Amino acid sequence: MTLIKHCLGKVRSASVPLPAPTHVYGCRLQKDDEGVRQLMSKWQEASQRAFQGSGTRPSWIRNNIAALQHGHLTAHDQRTYSMQHPRYLPDPSLTILQKKNAMGKKKKTADGKARGDAKGDDDAGDDADAGVIFGRRSGKNEASMKQIIQGHFSSSALGEEERDYPLIGSRITFGKMPLPRPTKASVLLQRNKEAEKAKLETESQKDVSSLWRMPKWSKIGPKVVEEIMSHRKFRAPRHGSLGFLPKKRTKKHRGKIRSFPKDDPAKPPHLTAFMAYKAGMTHVVREVDRSGSKMHKKEVVEAVTILEAPPMKVVGVVGYVATPTGLRTLTTVWAEHLSDEIRRRFYKNWYKSKKKAFTKYAKKWSEAPGKVEEELQRIKDYADVVRVLAHTQIKKLNLRQKKAHILEIQVNGGAIGDKVDFAKSLLEKGINPLGGFPHYGVVNEDWVMLKGQVIGTKKRVITLRKSLRAHSKRAHLEEINLKFIDTSSKLGHGRFQTDEEKHKFLGPLASRNRV
């Protein structure tokens, strides 16, 4: 059992010089592997020789002190004794006779028989405290304390080569000194430090210039990576925004609208969002209309993105009530007829399903139309926000997907009654390059042209929404005057804008004359 729990200061680091493993509190250890019986006999023999002729029977503590003084105990027994009786550890510089006299004087002092004048008390105190090492420090036994327990002995009987304990200076000691041997943790820590130091020394001795001869690495020092280095350019700003990380495929492709523009009752009712599908990119030539700019009345070429936007169908009206914790749904009114492309959205496997979605709800319009009107009237009376449920007509696009994308769009402008009437009225109601857009096809429906790029792949559904704030900058309010839209093929190097231009330039081809 180690003594780390009983130490003063609890040695945890090998940076403090630990005591030598061959000493215990100033007493040299005996490397003895004898049995218990032999040790006990040595112990008794030592005690008898130490107190022979004294006429008094030695106590157990004095017996142990004598055995320690003569060195007839093993290292383990000496450590155990020093842990149990730290106050009675002997001074190795004292002889047996001096110790015997010191103990006798101490006993007299304790009984009150030797208390006389001040000088006699001082002398008795010095002799009595000579054998006490771990008591409370005082000016009387300071010399003996420093001689035994301080780290760097100046005039010690052990010699300069056998220093045991760290220097404690003027610290008052009440308990035991640190371990007489290093702990396992301190030994491992010291080994790791020595290994790191040796590694740094070996790295500094290597020829760095032979490993990497580029001039920009000359100031890096000995920590140059010796193996194959990556092509990352560290001395330049990174490329791309960190806001788009992680760059991976999304789980839900349709964009979510977290907030809608602020409602203005003075304007007529209108929708605030739309959905379109990304077809591809091309470029246009336009004339800049920005007075005061160097590009005013000059032509510029800009990249644009084409979004195919077939008409959306409104299939429901939702009323919301404002509460202290946010909006709460009041009621929802669905249209009478729902197409299969929106009903597919409510099934995971349309082929294996019974296709019963909204069949019972559709009977309300024919059997009890009054209930539908009551729900619409509730929205007019109690709702604070009106939104519509609209879906895309994906069957009009040249896509394999058959499930329509559904979106909730807020109706802004006018009173609540006007919004409900506007939503109810909506219920159920060529830029192509040569060869079409790669990985998309030909755009046959309505389309939207946006300046610059749009995030996402081809065929990705894109959610468009009115801006939350009114734009007032001149660049945003500039009138767009398009002069040219590139319709050349996007596969390879397109040279022709139209099919007629291609046939006129190439002439009759054998492939076109075949029947």
UniProtKB/TrEMBL annotation:
Biased composition (Basic and acidic residues): 109-122
Region feature (Disordered): 101-127
Locations listed in the record: Plastid, Chloroplast
GO molecular function list: RNA binding; structural constituent of ribosome
Cellular component, GO annotation: chloroplast; cytosolic large ribosomal subunit
Major place of residence: plastid
Matches recorded under SUPFAM superfamilies: Translation proteins
Keywords: Ribonucleoprotein, Ribosomal protein
Gene Ontology biological-process entries: translation
Pfam families: CFAP77, Ribosomal_L3
Keyword Ribonucleoprotein: yes
Entry keyword Ribonucleoprotein: yes
Gene3D superfamilies the record matches: 3.30.1430.10, Ribosomal protein L3, domain 3
Family: Belongs to the universal ribosomal protein uL3 family.
Family annotation (PANTHER family): 60S RIBOSOMAL PROTEIN L3-RELATED, LARGE RIBOSOMAL SUBUNIT PROTEIN UL3
The protein's name: Uncharacterized protein
Species the sequence originates in: Nannochloropsis salina CCMP1776
The organism's taxonomic lineage, starting at the top: Eukaryota, Sar, Stramenopiles, Ochrophyta, Eustigmatophyceae
